[in-house]
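User: Before I run my own analysis I want an independent prediction to cross-check against. Here's the chain; please return only the structure tokens and, at the end, one sentence I can use as a sanity check.
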Amino acid sequence: MGNFYVVDHPLIRHKLTMMRKKDTSSKDFRQLLEEISMLMGYEVTKDLPVEDTEIETPICKTVGKKISGKKPAIVPILRAGLGMVEGLQRIIPSAKIGHIGLYRDPNTHLPVEYYCKLPPEMEKRRVIIVDPMLATGGSASDAVTTVKSRGGKNILLMCLVAAPEGVKKMQKDHPDVDIYCAALDECLNEKAYIVPGLGDAGDRIFGTK
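Assistant: Structure tokens:
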């Protein structure tokens, strides 16, 4: 079964607390999301494959390490996932970016796909699917299914806040996918929002209601 990790760094905990505050502005919310994504990026990329490369320093020739294989793919789930891309790109500037468009039906709370554009040769890439919230797990599970249908094999999910219900669904539907989050919250409320959560991450990122 895929592993579940909470990236419990003091800086991440501090920034996440600031994001949770209801009076945090959209500008600050976006900046904090970008910063946390970058900090989490160190953890989710810790086992990228490397190979030897010979270089010459100002002193002598030596052998160092460089990332090997196809460039990783960062795949945000639209729209809130877009807020996590730039932070990851700061540490993986060569990464390819895909997009998966899903929205939650307001009545059934089930995800509906409306857009998908992914880099080529997905089967050869480490795929990092990003979305700030893992609530019911429906959107994340469907996004992983979509990536797998287009060849993706080495997939992980990175989110900020997860509900136990979403983690359980992901592990049931996709036991081969590791999940990384900044916090595991208490539960979902009757509207399928995470408690205590962040509210609607998309609205808070883009200043919409």
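Sanity check: The mean pLDDT is 93.
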